[in-house]
Write a structure and sequence with these properties.
Structural class: mainly alpha
Order of helices and strands: HHHHHHHHHHH
Largest sheet: none
Radius of gyration: 30 Å
């Protein structure tokens, strides 16, 4: 009996040691994962400024995200300020009214600045900036909202931003759709149909894409 009791005590001691090893292993694993995540984030931020600004513009123009994405994540104030400046630089240089450009206002003399015409130009410039501010201050939409459809509905309220949104939100996020077209085209252009005109191929590919998507409802 004493032998078995002694053996049980050894077993309990071994179990305690194993539990301690498991806890230490769990702590080491969490520490390793945290360190890897931190290093990955630092590397991402290192190359982030070298990426295209389209990603920033699309995020802000998405009515489901706007600046809330950057506010909710771990972006500091300097980074968020830089993001806004990038957006406004492209917006003002490409989609703003040429009559309300800041370059013209800076070149005016003091007499012109005090004139009625100058005040009209300044008012237009303020309205242009307000269009962007109104977009940011309005509440974000539900995740089920289609961004392109939302901008189409609200293009009267945001004439300049809607044009910008149509240009940027239409950019494919990946090259997968175009690669799929080449793969599908092999089934269309066979050895027995190798003389199809380009217009015919384009029409067939478009029809197949439309019938595969929700656009097929338009034909019913």
């Amino acid at each position: 009996m004493e032998y078995y009791m002694f053996e049980d005590e050894n077993v309990n001691e071994d179990e305690d040691e194993n539990e301690g090893d498991d806890e230490n292993g769990s702590v080491d694993e969490k520490s390793t994962i945290k360190k890897a995540a931190t290093n990955s984030r630092e590397k991402l931020l290192q190359y982030y400024n070298k990426t295209n600004d389209a990603c920033v513009i699309v995020t802000i123009l998405d009515p489901r995200l706007k600046m809330e994405y950057y506010n909710n994540e771990t972006w500091n104030d300097d980074q968020k300020k830089e993001i806004r400046e990038k957006f406004l630089n492209i917006y003002n240089s490409t989609y703003s009214n040429p009559n309300s450009s800041s370059t013209l206002s800076n070149s005016l003399n003091n007499e012109y600045k005090n004139s009625i015409t100058s005040k009209v130009f300044k008012r237009k410039h303020t309205q242009k900036i307000d269009e962007f501010q109104v977009h940011l201050l309005s509440p974000v939409c539900d995740e089920s909202v289609d961004p392109l459809q939302w901008w189409k509905v609200n293009q009267t309220q945001f004439p300049r931003l809607s044009k910008m949104a149509m240009d940027y939100l239409a950019i494919p996020s990946t090259s997968v759709p175009s690669e799929e077209c080449f793969s599908i085209s092999k089934n269309l252009i066979t050895d027995k149909r190798n003389k199809l005109a380009g217009k015919t191929i384009k029409s067939c590919m478009c029809l197949k894409s439309w019938f595969s998507s929700s656009l097929s409802d338009l034909f019913e």
